[in-house]
Amino acid sequence: MFKQIFIERESLNNKYTQNILTYFKNIPTQQIEKIEDIWGRSKRPYLQKRTDLNLFIGRKKGELIKKAPHAYGIDRGLHYYFIHAYNCIYECQYCYLQGHFNTPDIVLFVNHDEIIQEMTRLLLENPAEEIWFHAGEFSDSLALSHITKEYDAYWKFFELNPRAQLELRSKSVNTRELERLRPLGNVHISFTISSAEQAKIYDLKCPSIKARISAIKKLALLGHKIGIHLDPLVINDHFESEYQQLTSDLFTEVPVKQISYVSIGVVRFTKDVFYEVKKNYPKSPYLAQDMIKSFDGKLRYPRPIRMWAINKVRQMCIDYGVSESLIYRCME
Prior knowledge:
Layout: E1 5-8, H1 15-23, E2 29-32, E3 55-58, E4 65-67, E5 78-82, E6 85-86, E7 91-92, E8 106-109, H2 112-125, E9 131-135, H3 145-148, H4 151-160, E10 164-170, H5 176-179, E11 187-193, H6 196-202, E12 203-204, H7 209-222, E13 225-233, H8 239-253, E14 259-266, H9 271-280, E15 292-293, E16 299-300, H10 303-319, E17 327-329
Parallel strand pairs: 1-2, 1-3, 3-8, 5-9, 9-10, 10-11, 11-13, 13-14, 14-17
Antiparallel strand pairs: 4-5, 6-8, 7-12, 15-16
Helix pairs in contact: 8-10
């Protein structure tokens, strides 16, 4: 998976570092002073991740937890995301990471105790608020979790702090760590899914939609709370029939009572990401579609078109028993 592993000296004896090194014991390692001295210092093509991917391990400095933007989560409480990794082993054609970082190399941060301390501070500073902490902004929350093994610590924290809500965002079917952890009412495992046809085109190296639904069902039947992200919607000639099939497949397999929320959003790009997408995937179908600069500067479908798509899928979810109050428009 990785060509080489770079480790910050100060993190060498960290238990999470040792978990990772034990798993990747046959990969060459090199000790470094700081991740930022090497990682991202020069531009590396995004698609080099297919053949030449490195791993960096170290301590996240600076802000460990950041305020989430508007409509990032369900309209309830305060929303933050915490940073435990950079970049992803999957390759999605629309992924904003290809225009966000200078390199596809993966970083795994191991100072989870400091992240949990920051969570504690935010709870103390906001004693009357429910606070959501989201993982997966810059990475997949589950894909490497059997290697890093940090979720025991988070589970202990959230079990003791019911006012805090944890969301783990993923496209992975790697549920082995979650299967051994007791379900908590304030921990939500959320999966990003799209129609099977669109996933085959855009979600490269990702588990199939059928496999993702199977993983969702497994966790739901174990008692875990589930979030669903129907995002990004890409409109095509078969949009309605494809999403009718998806919602049928999903909601006939997964108990609706276990679903905490459903978010729905359309494909969208910053200017930098759109430039990288055109370079990396020049034949992507959505590049020929009508997109305009919208309210936040991102390229999207014109508002009437995207509202039509969102409302169509929203109604499909309602028809299968999802409460209207649990559905929100993502980044709208």
